[in-house]
């Protein structure tokens, strides 16, 4: 009998039912729908965020036991949450009233343990020698959840971020690693989590720092012989947010020090939030032990926003800036700028600027000029869609066939070639390539790349496919 999400979940339910009260079973387990089983991860859909939090709080152990029985030690559970309060396109736009800009974040005082070896513990953010440790969270209050619009592309990351903000250090998402390409909202989301935590738990010490600045501080501390102070300082933080950890690659000293800080925080139930432009599997020159820590919690991807989300983001931005421009122009911009939210915002800002400076009406023609500049200025990357199209055409099949589940050899080969070229010509992660090419996982993509490499060496016909296709892409 083949194992499916349904069959696994059915067995889990049988086990769970034997172990809890009938009423609790009815309330908390019957409404769950098994959605997907991939590798050892079972995805279940729960009706709301509250529901998911309740499960995590009360039944996570039971769920783990049940799932381990079915899928073995490496079993994973993934929640799919139906959001109650979405910014999707179902509600009229006028209902999306954002909260007004927040005030600056107050500085947080931190109690330094009296028995600390060095009572003048140095705070790397202030002039050394200051006794009373006051740390600024370095959070930008304008990056909050209210203006981080939800869409399919960010739903998992956003709701995981919310869950972490509700219970810092108290969920299984520790560390929470948010990854995705440039301009897709990693920094915004990282701040939003911090801002939300400060709102809910003002007494907690939250610190946002870029990996780059963290590295500079560390190097400085080595120069000044204050490495221990540096470590000690970071070990006192309750919620540590490090942005762009890919910056640590190749920097073994900083990685080492971060490893110790991380362990200390994690062991003490403190929350760590990380962002990166790559999934952990794709990170290079990061020590294995650190990578394995990154994978302890949850890695959630921010993908390129779909059309509806792009529209919502644009409208929200205009609304907050108090600017009105015609619907068809918003649509035009959203249609033509697809892969980067920063550029999307940039185009609309430049459009408004052009129209006010030159006192021109915002017309489609003006929008075309502005968008064209944006699209031209950003180096055109071959898209995964385009790669799939070219490979399918070359093998005279359609894209749906290339993506299908069939194991027919020539289709499998075409699919593997598409994955190989996507890895070669785009910056997308293995996971993202897999999800775009027929909803496969990162391991499948990795395997495809290896297979293509091997065949290129051993199979002359196959070598020709690669050469032909490479020409088409360059
Ligand atoms: P990254 O750190 O991934 O490069 P940023 O967090 O700097 O991206 O986001 C780029 C811009 O896009 C920011 O101005 C941010 O506010 C905006 N942005 C990203 N995602 C969203 C979203 N879901 N809703 C609204 N604005 C967003
Ligand atoms: Mg960023």
From TrEMBL:
**Which compartments does it reside in?**
Cytoplasm
| Keyword line | ATP-binding, Cytoplasm, DNA replication, DNA-binding, Lipid-binding, Nucleotide-binding
Q: Which GO terms describe its cellular component?
A: cytoplasm; plasma membrane
Gene3D superfamilies, alphabetically? 1.10.1750.10, 1.10.8.60, 3.30.300.180, P-loop containing nucleotide triphosphate hydrolases
Q: Identify the domain of life.
A: Bacteria
In its UniProt record, a GO molecular function of this protein is: lipid binding
All copies of the AAA+ ATPase domain together span 172-302
Q: Which SMART domains match?
A: AAA, Bac_DnaA_C
Locate the residues binding ATP. Answer: 183, 185-187
One Pfam family of this chain = DnaA_N
Q: What is its main location?
A: cytoplasm
List the GO biological process terms: DNA replication initiation; regulation of DNA replication
Subunit details? Oligomerizes as a right-handed, spiral filament on DNA at oriC.
Question: According to its record, what is known about the domains?
Answer: Domain I is involved in oligomerization and binding regulators, domain II is flexibile and of varying length in different bacteria, domain III forms the AAA+ region, while domain IV binds dsDNA.
Protein name (record): Chromosomal replication initiator protein DnaA
Record the organism: Maribacter caenipelagi
Query: What gene, per UniProt, encodes this protein?
Result: dnaA
């Amino acid at each position: 009998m083949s194992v499916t999400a349904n069959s696994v979940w059915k067995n889990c339910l049988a086990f769970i039912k034997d172990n809890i009260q009938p009423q609790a079973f009815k309330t908390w387990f019957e409404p769950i729908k098994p959605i997907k089983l991939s590798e050892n991860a079972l995805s279940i859909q729960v009706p709301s965020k509250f529901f998911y939090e309740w499960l995590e709080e009360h039944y996570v152990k039971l769920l783990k036991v049940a799932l381990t029985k079915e899928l073995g030690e490496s079993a994973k559970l993934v929640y799919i949450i139906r959001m109650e309060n979405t910014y999707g396109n179902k509600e009229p736009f006028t209902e999306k009233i954002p909260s007004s800009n927040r005030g600056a974040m107050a500085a947080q005082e931190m109690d330094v343990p009296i028995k600390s070896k060095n009572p003048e513990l140095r705070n790397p953010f202030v002039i050394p020698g200051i006794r009373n440790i006051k740390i600024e969270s370095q959070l930008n209050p304008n990056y909050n959840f209210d203006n981080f619009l939800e869409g399919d592309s960010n739903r998992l990351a956003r709701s995981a971020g919310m869950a972490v903000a509700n219970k810092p250090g108290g969920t299984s998402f520790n560390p929470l690693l948010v990854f995705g390409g440039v301009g897709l909202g990693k920094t915004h989301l990282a701040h939003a989590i911090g801002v939300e935590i400060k709102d809910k738990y003002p007494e907690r010490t939250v610190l946002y720092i870029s990996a780059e600045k963290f590295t500079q501080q560390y190097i400085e501390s080595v120069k000044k012989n204050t490495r221990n102070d540096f470590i000690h300082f970071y070990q006192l933080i309750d919620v540590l947010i490090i942005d762009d950890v890919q910056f640590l690659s190749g920097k073994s000293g900083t990685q080492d020090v971060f490893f110790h800080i991380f362990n200390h925080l994690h062991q003490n139930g403190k929350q760590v939030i990380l962002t990166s432009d790559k999934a952990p599997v794709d990170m290079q020159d990061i020590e294995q032990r650190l990578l394995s820590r990154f994978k302890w919690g949850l890695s959630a991807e921010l993908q390129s926003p779909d059309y509806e989300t792009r529209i919502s983001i644009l409208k929200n931005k205009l609304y907050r800036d108090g600017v009105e421009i015609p619907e068809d122009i918003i649509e035009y911009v959203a249609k033509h700028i697809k892969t980067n939210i920063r550029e999307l915002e940039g185009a609309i800002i430049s459009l408004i600027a052009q129209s006010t400076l030159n006192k021109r009406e915002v017309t489609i023609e003006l929008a075309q000029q502005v968008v064209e500049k944006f699209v031209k200025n950003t180096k055109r990357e071959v898209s995964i869609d385009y790669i799939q199209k070219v490979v399918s055409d070359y093998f005279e099949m359609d894209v749906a066939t290339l993506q299908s589940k069939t194991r027919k050899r020539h289709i499998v080969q075409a699919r593997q070639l598409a994955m190989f070229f996507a890895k070669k010509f785009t910056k997308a992660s293995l996971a993202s390539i897999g999800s775009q090419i027929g909803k496969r996982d990162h391991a499948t993509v990795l395997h495809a790349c290896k297979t293509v490499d091997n065949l290129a060496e051993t199979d002359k016909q196959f070598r020709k496919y690669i050469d032909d296709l490479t020409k088409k892409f360059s």
